[in-house]
Amino acid sequence: MEWKRLKDEQPAERETVWACNPEAKFVALACRVWIDDGDLSGWLWAVSNGTIYHENGRIVSECEMDDDYDFTHWHPLPVLPNVA
Length: 84
Known about the structure:
By secondary structure, this protein is mainly beta. The protein has strands at 4-5, 17-21, 26-37, 40-55, 58-66, 73-76. β3 (26-37) and β4 form a beta hairpin.
């Protein structure tokens, strides 16, 4: 699967994905969140704080929000194998 350009397609809200800006040489586990808090409203990126785990077969991460990320591309994470 190829990387997706953010201007063409967005990941689902709170979906943990690889996000990058190749020009800035920055790659992170991240998710998009909607904020509606008076002065600060709109979509923001939240970047992994290093805590990564799985939930319902999906890789997820605890993330911290910031309005200063300039990602241009994203890539979905793989689904974990079903281990019995």
